[in-house]
Amino acid sequence: MARLTATMPVAQAVAAYAAYAALRRHADARRSSGDPRGIGQLMSDERFARLTGASGSAPAVDVEVGLGGVGALAAARRQGPGAGAPT
């Protein structure tokens, strides 16, 4: 999950609230027509579509996780005595 925020002058923030209200109306209409997703999810999906021009959910993103020295040591300890020891 991620959070998108903006810092702006009050006049712009008031105008931005109109966009929030439009997203809420869109989500309410979708729920009324039987969409099972929650209001927040519907608003988030619609916001994504309006910001990117793409419909649907965000594209898949590959995430790589590396183990540093402490993580590798912990993994070796879970494998038992002598695991990861030089031969």
Class computed from helices, strands and strand pairing: mainly alpha
Distance between the amino and carboxyl termini: 43 Å
Sheet of most strands: none
Backbone shape: elongated
Low-confidence stretches: none
As an assembly, this protein is single chain
Give the amount of beta strand, in percent.
under 5%
Give the total of beta strands: 0
- Helix share bin: 55-70%
Radius of gyration computed on alpha carbons:
23 Å
Order of helix and strand elements from N to C terminus: HHH
Count of DSSP-assigned helices:
3
Mean pLDDT: 79
Give the structure's gist in a few sentences.
By secondary structure, this protein is mainly alpha-helical. The protein has 3 helices and no strands.
What does this structure look like?
The two termini are 43 Å apart. Helix 1 (10-32) crosses helix 2. The chain has a domain at 9-57. The mean pLDDT is 79. The protein is elongated. It is mainly α. The relative contact order is 0.07. It has helices at 10-32, 39-52, 69-79.
Helix and strand topology:
Layout: H1 10-32, H2 39-52, H3 69-79
Key phrases:
87 residues
